[in-house]
Design goal:
This protein is of the alpha+beta class. It has twelve helices and five strands.
Amino acid sequence: MKRLHLFLIKAFISSFIATFFIAIFLLLMQFLWKYIDDLVGKGLEFTQITELIFYASARFVPVALPIAMLLSSVMVFGKLGENYELAAIKASGISLIRILFPLTIFVVIISYSSFLFSNYVMPIANLKNGSMIYDIQKKKPALNIKEGIFYKDIEGFSIKITKKDADGKTLNNIIIYDHTANNGNDKVIIAESGIMQLTKDEQFLELILYNGHSYIDIAKNNRKAKKPYRTTHFKEDLIRFNLSSFSTMNNSEDLYKGHYAMLSNKQLAIAIDSLNLKFKDRKETFATNIIDKYNTKSEIDSLVVFDDLSLVKQKQQFDIAINKLRTIKSIVKSNKDDLEYRKIIITKHEIEWHRKISLAVACILLFLVGSSMGAIVRKGGFGLPVLISVFFFIIYHVLSMIGEKSAKDLSMQAYEGIWLANIVFLPIALFLVYKAKNDSQLFDFSSVFKRISSLTK
């Protein structure tokens, strides 16, 4: 029996590792496709790209584990059924439940590891990944002046060149518009040629210009000037551009430290309690202020003598009442929006708290679904098992997205939305295990057909 268990565990682990890294790769490709516009042309170093991919891959581990569980279990048990090994094991008196027992223990360990990873490693990975993406998005593109196109990424300047030599440094027919004075094109520099080079600290770009002249629009600054332009000729000139906006990415981790995706479940529970207290205080304060401000005794007493007032004063009272009602309506709407926003923030924290646990439980459920389907269809390899896995995972993913969106819309509780997919898949998993245990077809309509034929006779 131990040999059988070892055989099953070895077969499952090898398939699980392969499918896990495939799932990570596919999720990573989706991530890179989403942020490709932010990454291209930023002059990122290889170490920065590697670090970004590493943290992004770590974020996908809890999602990739259920996918790997589903696919590997379908493949392993499908192959056992295809080779009649599963039938031989059952013929020897070993039930499917007994066969699944050692693998279930292994899956439970992986599931618990998934929760620990989500709770302790994921917040760090989310923090590092989120801050790096923010820094990359804020970082300006790498310095790349092209021929015939105005280059405007250096703040306050527009540079155009006609030709760049093969060395990448020598430029010809240079036009530079200086906008640093915020007066439009009040200063223009034109040169026949020039050499472009970076300082040693790479903080400044130096342009050594040859045989040129500059035009300065004096009329914009001094209307009494007799000559609207001042022209200066030079044989050699040096211009320095500050490249601080092109420098290495800043560390913006402090911006994300309080985000719910960067917290463990213990920290989330504390944050949820704090937010709930603030929500309750805000609600009570709003109710108290409305009652104190717009339900005074003097206003009630004024209604008693309303009939004694003249028509003009009655109209004034009506106008005052209407304006107060409009003010109350505006205040109520504003406070309602504020309370709804606070509730959404609380819900997002609760969603993150439940997500860590639900993804861990999903590993067990999808393993039961996959192993049962593999035993029923009896097909191994990457053909039919992949189709089955994709079908079930799409259903699971759609249910998860519907539940999460409904929870964020406050149309259902956070735990209901996040656990919706698991609740739906629990009876499916038990049904499939029952079918695989009894070696019955997935949908057997023979008894229905027999009853129909007996009724027609």
